[in-house]
Records
---
Amino acid sequence: MGKDLIQKSLKDSLFTGIIALALFGPIVGLRTVAKNEVLVVEPKWLVVLLIVIFCAVGRFFINIYTFKKEQRRGEASSFGKAISHFLDEKGSQIAIGAIAFSIIFPFMPFADRYWMDIAIMMMTYIMLGWGLNIVIGLAGLLDLGYVAFYAVGAYSYALFAIHFGWSFWICLPIAGLFAGMFGILLGFPVLRLRGDYLAIVTLAFGEMIRILLLNWYELTKGPDGLTGIPRPSFFGLPFKRYPDEGVETFHTFFGLEYDPMQRIIFLYYLILILALITNAFTIKIRRLPVGRAWEALREDEIACKSLGVNPRNTKLTAFAVGAMFGGFAGSFFATRQAFISPESFTFIESAIIVAIVVLGGMGSQTGVVLSTIFLIGLIEVFRDFESYRMIAFGGAMVLIMVFRPKGILAKRKPTITMGKHG
Amino acid sequence: MEYFLQQLINGLTLGSVYGLIAIGYTMVYGIIGMINFAHGDIFMVGAFVALIAFILFALTSIALPIILILVLLIAMVFTACYGWTVEKLAYKPLRKSFRLAPLISALGMSIVLQNYVQAAQGARIKTLQPVIQGGFNFFKESDFVVTLSYLQIFIVLVTIVLMAVFTLLITRTALGRAQRACEQDRTMTALMGINVDRTISMTFIIGSSLASVAGVMFVMYYGVIDFYIGFLAGIKAFTAAVLGGIGSIPGAMLGGLLIGLIETFWSGYISIEYKDIAAFTTLVIVLIFFPTGFLGKPDIEKV
């Protein structure tokens, strides 16, 4: 068997090498560079050679490996399966542990500015993932334009805060309301569509909102973006080193030394609370009639219709609720950045959020956390290799889908079961 | 009137490009029922291969018609490799998986392709010197001179020729029969002794080479490309495929022409800043009111 296999593998890896040469030869090997305003081609054959050799050799070893694996099939247990089993068993303890860890996180010795920023970013994505999980995971509607609601939330927060000077806690619900209204507005005409079509239409809506933000200069300042968005205050106490005359600040009120980290830590807790509210809401609503209707609708639309569930209204509520949480996250984003522009709301953001939900295992709240840590962590690790990090990100999406098509936490526990299972 | 005529000519040219991309969407949807999200980026890769080929050939002294044919062939071959590889890596393992899995993996592939080209070729826009210049001018005595450039004639001609060849391929050859059979029932087709995997691979190869021709045309027509062109062109071509009735090949071409016309007239008469909204609005309206498109078969829901 051995010789035959090696011969076959060699042939196969030669073929892989040829394909790799065709793939990478022109695009990598012939880089176009502008010299004196004229494009010339700069050959990079060494890189191509390395890639081709890597592909061919890699293919050879993969062949040998899969053959050996086929010989002892059934022995190896999947790593992912073990994880999801572990999480099923100890799910609630781990969740409590994770929440406890996230509460004490800012006071960890290593939690400097850099780590806090990453933590805030991850929390924002976790919140967005949980919000979108209502739409995708519970109601089964693939929304590729979720970033539109994030944008609506951010812009309505910014506009209200700048023009009316309202505080964060007034603007936050307004922004959520606006985003939710947009969810209904956009959802109303399109929810009759089937999965893939719905995905494309929501994508189109997302892009339309972005184009609108880009071109409606009077309101949004177009590509320049909105600046000077007020920072949030701690129940009316601003985080400022040199406050205006007669205004008490956070550090003077509590008798602390001024430290810019105080604001960062406050922002961290803000998003943590917002995210946990989203999570609690989802867990709660799953047990209410409307949440059950969502999940039933995801499983079988026709059966639902015949049992008297109104699919349009049910889907609309899912869309609106998901959009509302997107809007909350958007207003947090606006107040954290103090600057927003349409640049921040491109399609790639939607893709990242959808990836977080689907790769985590649709409908799994813990899955969202895991995949956020994995994907955003991946983007962070590759931060120094600007354009390679999105390659790694996209590649991870493909790989997870290929090897675990149902996501990291594939097992879906039914929210309701008939009777007790022994 | 003259202005209208000019917009019509421009719209038809643009529509040819969209139509060629739309065929790839419609074929893949017909045969495996998924939206190939990376198709727009395959088109972008085709445009880049064409750009590189044009730059290289500009150094030689080959006659222009031969250069054009060579560039078309080169772009088709290399881009087809991309289409084939993408299918093998990202879609084939997911063929029996649940509905969203291939869509997500296609999304990932699209991100990979875009950023790969950005990493390899740089993020800045690339400009190509005009390859074919000149054209016919009409209504010379009026205020608005209507131009029909040789390039536009070339684009429309190539599209017509390709469409003819392609229609023959689908209707007259064994491969075309196998494809149509796979569209109806893959399991049965496999039982009849047709290699379904090979047929699907061929579908991707054909779709990608048509998209690469669109890429060649795009780079010649606009003269400017970057790694991001695939996204918008992809959505517009998908709209075209839906408009014509997804799964229907003549429909894709018709839809492409319509989208090209709608976009040109919108930017000519209404607003150029919002020209992309025209395509999106069309997409939404079509999907809501005519989800089956012009030439599509109605989708019967079975319990």
---
Amino acid sequence: MTEVSVAKEDVAATGELVVLKNVNKHFGALHVLQDIDLTIARGEVVVVIGPSGSGKSTLCRTINRLETIDSGTIAIDGKPLPAEGKALAKLRADVGMVFQSFNLFAHKTVLENVMLGQIKVRKTDKKKAEEKARSLLDRVGVGSQADKYPAQLSGGQQQRVAIARALAMDPKVMLFDEPTSALDPEMINEVLEVMQQLARDGMTMIVVTHEMGFARSAANRVVFMADGKIVEEAVPDQFFSNPRSDRAKDFLSKILHH
Amino acid sequence: MFDFLSDYDNPTLLGAFWMTVKLTLLSGIGSLVWGTLLAAMRVSPVPLMRGFGTAYVNIVRNIPLTVIIIFTSLGLADIFGVTMGASDFKVQGFRLAILGLVAYTAAFVCEAIRSGINTVPLGQAEAARAIGLTFSQTLRLIILPQAFRSVIGPLANVLIALTKNTTVAAAIGVAEAAYLMKEMIENEAQTVLIGAVFAFGFVVLTLPTGLFLGWLSKRLAVKR
């Protein structure tokens, strides 16, 4: 991995980048997001944690409208999320997303995966796109795998390619939907290291994860969700050492002591 | 014993099979294009398109091909004056037959491709949308290429069926293999031999198709 020694930019109020107001969503009878208010500042790293079924993945997916919402508003960089169509596609290009199951395009090589969006969405010319793709692949440490197909890579490598693919679009914000949950334990760190580097470089990130170590070391803020609600928001140190809500105490006691 | 085979010159034996090949190739290409468009309609987010695609497939695939082919000639051409730009009756029959074969076969191509689309994991489309591809880009660049590769086998079946279905074009006077066979059977005594010759001719056309596409299907399979 290339060593980039960029100190983390000062997060202090460079503006609100992602604003969710009063967001509600139902899956049938299940009220999966209940009156969610959440504001993420430019350059901020927010980690969303909580028990399974608490709505944290759904929350993450509503931000680029892979899930629609029933009521409330979501704005990115001051602009409300458009409905379907070209405007929505344009917005999604500015929001990078990394999935639990990687979702690399199975019929394209690693290099093509990272070039596709640049060429088809950003209209970058092929040569520049390839240059950028190769440098991003080097940056996430899979430069030597550029000509392989996704199925030939390990899970950790695939996920790093997926991160490179998202970064190739120069996103304003990156969404990570449980990026390490499908990985073998020994591959989790290689992905987390890339994410940590990204955080240090000042990328705005929303990370849904069960990796408490990552939350402690990289997050500016921890958002704890349970039963479709945001129960607690705090800086990591305060949240992990001194959670205020009973729900968070209960959750932490189950995951931290073994 | 095979003397009679060279007694025919309108069409000749080879000429008749060449007509079968032309009907198959042109209808094959046409139905692949139209069938893909129908499949795109059936998965599109626009309800009107979905409705049209569904209605088309369910109506057309349930009508006998003979009825469709005869309708193109007696209905489209004779009543509605659709001559497909042909002044000559033979050319008109040829073009109408292709129209009918495309209309019919596309329904089966559509369903094969749609089942292929269902084999592509949802995450592929989500990832494509997440990098900002539009619906049609997602379909063209991500979903259909993977869907096609997984349905080469079923499409080979459709192509083989199409090759044999071209014989129905004889009903509107297209001089292809079955047309010649009927003529020979009327004039010659060796009916079993005639049948065998034409059966063999079709096997020669379809067997390599099946083997080649089977090989292609394995070669192009998407590894997950």
